[in-house]
From TrEMBL:
UniProt-recorded name of the protein: Macrophage erythroblast attacher
Record InterPro entries: CRA_dom, CTLH/CRA, CTLH_C, Fyv10_fam, LisH, ZF_RING_GID
One GO location term (cellular component): cytoplasm
Coiled coil: none
Protein species of origin: Auxenochlorella protothecoides
Location within or outside the cell: Cytoplasm
A biological-process GO annotation: proteasome-mediated ubiquitin-dependent protein catabolic process
Signal peptide: none
GO molecular function: ubiquitin protein ligase activity; zinc ion binding
Limits of the CTLH domain: 158-197
Length: 374
């Protein structure tokens, strides 16, 4: 089996596009300041205005220097990927495993970075030959490690700071991550018994979300009526510790979406593709040579289609209606496939946006691709 490059080469391109856009905004600010120069002579505070203008230009100069450094990094990573693609070539006879080794290493590196095993990922990068660091996406995962660590220690401060940096992108994607973080901080105030502080916090930080998150707001507000012993029970409901792990996963999904990374590890996708081919009917006796006789692989294959069918029918998981020429299958970027009718109905209800019911992934209806199955 030959492993495809997947979407790893899109990351520096996406970040370069955003950095270039930021450069444009900074330059626009500079032009506005320079356009105001002719008016400095008016009034008696011209000297103070000139000093303020110089300070503003110095600040913008610093921002441009940071943008230039980020652009150099993205261009270097893009160049490394282009060089890598030129070196790929065709495998020699009998050496397919060696030919696939760099791709296998990169899939494992991506998996380790997603799981937070940074030291193991760095070790594999260092032992994978020159250029491996530039084709890995460690520069994306490294900054969010402290954010994830804060959530694991039951703090939202770092995550909210990260959201402020990416506020415009999260708003454009209609993300609810900020609301979920604010709701968790509210719950912690309720858990601590500080009712007055919790009410003040809800009025300031939760009330602005009433138009889109009314149901969850009401559920959170209801916790104010819980007695102290109910708040102490941390194993169920909004007081469960599992809420923090759900926030970690929600943060990761937003990172993947911002940088056009697949929501599932490419390593998992490749493994499931291979396991689907081995996923024989239940009555087949599995030998020790079959990977699916191991519990780990059997878990990955759970829910995958069986390899052998005399007749196959594609059913939309949303509408439970067959997908055929009258209801063609459409593919989301996260790999999930649903019927056109159900997705069109979603788009009509949500201003052209469709949502995957399994992963929560959202995208424009125009981004969907038609699947042709023979």
């Amino acid at each position: 089996m030959r492993l495809c490059p997947s979407t790893w080469n899109q990351v520096p391109y996406e970040t370069l596009k955003r950095t270039t856009r930021e450069r444009k905004y900074v330059l626009d600010d500079i032009y506005k300041i320079l356009a105001a120069l002719p008016t400095l002579a008016e009034g008696t505070d011209g000297a103070q205005k000139l000093q303020d203008m110089a300070s503003a230009l110095q600040h913008l100069k610093t921002k441009l220097e940071g943008i230039a450094e980020a652009e150099r990094g993205d261009l270097s990573r893009l160049l490394a990927r282009v060089r890598y693609l030129r070196r790929v070539g065709q495998p020699e006879a009998g050496r397919l495993i060696d030919w696939n080794r760099p791709r296998i290493n990169r899939l494992v590196i991506d998996y380790l970075l997603r799981r937070g095993y940074r030291q193991s990922a760095l070790h594999l990068i260092q032992t994978s030959g020159p250029g491996s660091e530039e084709v890995a996406d460690g520069h994306i995962f490294q900054p969010i490690q402290s954010v994830i660590a804060g959530l694991e220690q039951h703090r939202c401060t770092e995550a909210l700071a990260w959201c402020r940096v990416h506020e415009a992108r999260l708003a454009k994607a209609r993300s609810s991550l900020v609301f979920r973080l604010r709701k968790q901080e509210f719950i912690e105030l309720v858990r601590g018994g500080d009712t007055h502080a919790a009410i003040r916090y809800a009025r300031r930080h939760l009330a602005p979300w009433a138009a889109t998150q009314m149901g969850e707001m009401q559920a959170a507000a209801a916790t104010l009526a819980f007695p102290g012993d109910a708040r102490a029970r941390r194993g169920t409901g909004l007081f469960a510790d599992s809420q923090w792990q759900e926030l970690v996963e929600a943060l990761k999904q937003e990172v993947y979406r911002l940088y056009s990374l697949p929501p599932i590890s490419p390593l998992t996708i490749h493994l499931q593709a291979g396991l689907a081919a081995l996923n024989a009917p239940l009555h087949v006796q599995r030998s020790r040579a079959d990977p699916l006789h191991l519990a780990t692989y059997a878990g990955l294959a759970e829910g995958l289609p069986r390899a052998k069918h005399s007749h196959s029918h594609l059913i939309c998981a949303i509408s439970h209606v067959p997908m055929d020429e009258h209801n063609p299958p459409l593919v989301m970027k996260n790999g999930h496939v649903y019927g056109q009718a159900a997705l069109r109905a979603q788009a009509d209800r949500d201003d052209g946006v469709v949502t995957c019911p399994v992963t929560g992934y959202r995208c424009e209806y125009s981004e969907l691709k038609r699947a042709y199955i023979s």
